[in-house]
Fold this protein.
Amino acid sequence: MNRRLSFRSFRSYLAAGFGVVALLIGGCATNPPPKKDLTAFQAAKPASILILPPVNESPDVLALPGVLSQLALPLAESGYYVPSVALVEETLKANGVQTPAEAHAIEPSKLREIFGTDAVLYTTVKRYGSTYRLLSSDAVVELRAQIRDLRNNELLWEGRATASSAEQQGQTQGGLAGLLIRAVVDQIVGTLTDRSHPVAGIASLRMLKTGFPEGVPPGPRARAMPSPR
Amino acid sequence: MSYQNRLPHKASRAAGALLACAGLVGCATPTPPLYDWGGYTSATYQFLKGGDFDPRLSIIRLEEQLQKTAAFGRAPPPGLHGHLALLYTKIGDDSNAQNHLLRERARFPESAAYMDFLLKNSKIKVAQ
């Protein structure tokens, strides 16, 4: 999008104003995706992605289990092999790595040696949990992440996403995306403390899944499975 | 699925199945997900949350799920066998743990290096 604004005349001020309004309105609907540069990712062709425990910047301690458990589905459904996140966390702990920050600081070559994956996902939880408003409280989850090549530490992908329990389910996409979102939302009808978990699932899908504006390119297992019968 | 720990097993399962059906009918689509996820994400969440989590209950549910997945000719998600291996380790059942590591390795060759590391080092230790 060309956002070069000239401030030389009143007319251009006016045009700029309209432009900003248009951007804001556009932002409220489905974000017009700034075309993501995926050339490095496509050239690197990773087949497997290690998901490390996310660094949690929110005050909610459930952010770690809530987000970590939701990150596997969108990457696997995009066609990548992802090891069990609980097994990975256990392996890290057994090797003296106690916190996500410590895990994120491990040398890529060491990660590759142990886990054998081509790439790694580093996630940060910016927000997780309830935000209270006058009439209701919404569960909001905001994530940021990077995928790096474990063979050379090259940055392959960056993404971010936000999801909220206040979103209308009817507004979610149809097709496979809609099906996956339903699968994520329907699985827990749990207690109030757990209600951010499905929201984390939607944020993860939005951030990572092939087909979403932020998503990763399709991996080698995408549609490579024999169709179920 | 913390609520399932408190509700009668069958009733909650039926409710889950109904919800799943509603989801499927609600947006029918020619391209189903690659994998049969079932309760894997929930099981992972419960495990990571810790607390009064019972690995045996999780094992029973996920083993049942694997049978259904196979019966429908579908594929279990990557990591499910690895997760089961971890759960069996937690209850001291090393032979079943090893069995699931080998199944993860067989189904997903990408996991070979990690599975071999675990099989060789027996490094899935109970932390806690």
